[in-house]
């Protein structure tokens, strides 16, 4: 199993395609009893430590569980083994509850914003996420940490995602957070087929927030990509030609296949 | 997904149909998978990463991403999988047949 960088992976699994292979993997996965038992032991050890240490310990523990999964998945020899591992995938939910509790217990501590941002970016729906988002908007609306939260909300099913993003756009003083919020609002409009609203948002990103670093290059690159897709890759448009080489370095073009029904499959073996 | 694609390609081998991949794996890995999975259809090799030129131009942010084109090159369906992909392709093949039949009608 290919394991992209955490940032890349987050984007891949957040993709707008609801049945993406990577997405499927992360939605089907249930929590791992063995790993959780170990995690519970560690949580007791850190209970007396400072809230920042506790936050870092929880995040480290979650990252270790995910890495352990990827390693075991890569080493698995049979489909049965892989299936079993997927059933025991470390779900963020069990960590998000503890991080929410940590933030609740230390509302004035700067680490509360980190913990809440972790919950919203990793545990993407449900009561825990809703409550974390509510507290973030109430107590941390000016935090520079909301950029990642805005990115995550673009792909959230939470009803309040759009309102939260509008609040960030209006009240957060940081250029980067505003840009991410505006881009995320564009993605939400696009997913709801409000094309002209989405186009306006992406045009605004190009005008005001071009320099911010996004997924593939800058937010401007991302906005241009979205506008290109909406204008040239919509249903009913003639597909732009593709020219390239196959694995034997032989060149071929999409237009060579005109006259045939064509399925184009963007894929990777991961 | 590979078994479904294999069966689709096999079922429609005598029809005006093509499955074309745009692959984001390193080349050596792609070679191995094509062999192991007995892929008879072609893929463009997109430079070995998800940031390749074709995926970037097509604004692909999730994998797999699917487009289905009719015989005129018009995008007709997006992100259809398994049975939905079969149904989409069959509908377009039927449309192509109707077009051909219509084209052969003698003029009055």
Can you walk through the features of this model?
The complex is a heterodimer of chains A (270) and B (108). With 270 residues, chain A is mainly alpha-helical. Chain A has a domain at 160-237. Chain A contains 13 helices and three strands; from the N terminus they run H-H-H-H-H-H-H-H-H-H-H-H-H-E-E-E. A two-stranded antiparallel ribbon of chain A has the order 1-2. In chain A, helix 12 runs antiparallel to helix 13. The longest helix of chain A has 25 residues, at 51-75. The radius of gyration of chain A is 21 Å and the shape is flat. The model of chain A is unreliable at 1-48 (pLDDT under 50). Chain B is an alpha+beta fold. Chain B is globular, with a radius of gyration of 16 Å. The longest helix of chain B has 22 residues, at 82-103. The interface between A and B is large, with 50 and 60 residues. Strand 3 (261-267) of chain A pairs antiparallel with strand 3 (65-69) of chain B, so a sheet runs across the interface.
Task: List its salient traits.
heterodimer, A: mainly alpha, 13 helices, 61% helix, B: alpha+beta, Glutaredoxin, two-stranded parallel ribbon, two-stranded antiparallel sheet, 4 helices, 44% helix
């Amino acid at each position: 199993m290919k394991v992209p960088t955490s940032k890349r992976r987050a984007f891949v699994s957040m993709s707008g395609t609801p049945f993406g292979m990577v997405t499927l993997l992360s939605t089907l996965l249930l929590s791992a009893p063995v790993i959780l038992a170990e995690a519970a032991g560690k949580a007791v050890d850190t209970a007396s430590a400072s809230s920042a240490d506790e936050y870092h310990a929880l995040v480290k523990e979650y990252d270790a569980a995910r890495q352990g999964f990827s390693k075991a998945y890569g080493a698995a020899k049979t489909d049965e083994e892989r299936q079993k591992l997927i059933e025991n995938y470390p779900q963020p939910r069990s960590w998000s509850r503890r991080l929410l509790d940590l933030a609740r217990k230390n509302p004035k501590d700067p680490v509360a914003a980190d913990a809440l941002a972790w919950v919203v970016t990793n545990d993407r729906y449900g009561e825990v996420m809703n409550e974390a988002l509510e507290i973030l908007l109430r107590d941390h609306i000016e935090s520079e940490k909301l950029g990642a939260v805005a990115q995550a909300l673009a792909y959230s099913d939470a009803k309040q995602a759009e309102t939260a993003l509008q609040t960030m756009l209006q009240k957060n003083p940081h250029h980067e957070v505003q840009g991410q919020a505006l881009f995320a609002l564009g993605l939400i409009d696009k997913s709801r087929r409000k094309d002209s609203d989405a186009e306006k948002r992406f045009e605004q990103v190009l005008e005001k927030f071009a320099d911010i670093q996004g997924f593939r290059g800058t937010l401007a690159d991302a906005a241009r990509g979205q506008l290109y897709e909406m204008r040239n890759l919509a249903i009913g448009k003639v597909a732009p030609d593709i020219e390239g080489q196959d694995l034997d370095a032989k060149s071929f073009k999409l237009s060579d296949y005109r006259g045939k029904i064509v399925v184009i499959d963007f894929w990777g073996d991961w | 997904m590979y078994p479904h694609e294999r069966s689709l390609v096999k079922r429609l081998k005598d029809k005006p149909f093509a499955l074309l991949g745009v692959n984001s794996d390193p080349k050596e890995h792609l070679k191995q998978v094509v062999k192991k999975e007995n892929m008879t259809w072609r893929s463009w090799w997109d430079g070995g990463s998800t940031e390749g030129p074709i995926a970037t131009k097509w604004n692909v942010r999730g994998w797999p991403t699917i487009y289905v084109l009719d015989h005129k090159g018009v995008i007709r369906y997006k992100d259809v999988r398994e049975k939905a992909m079969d149904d989409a392709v069959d509908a377009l093949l039927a449309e192509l047949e109707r077009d051909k039949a219509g084209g052969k009608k003698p003029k009055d």
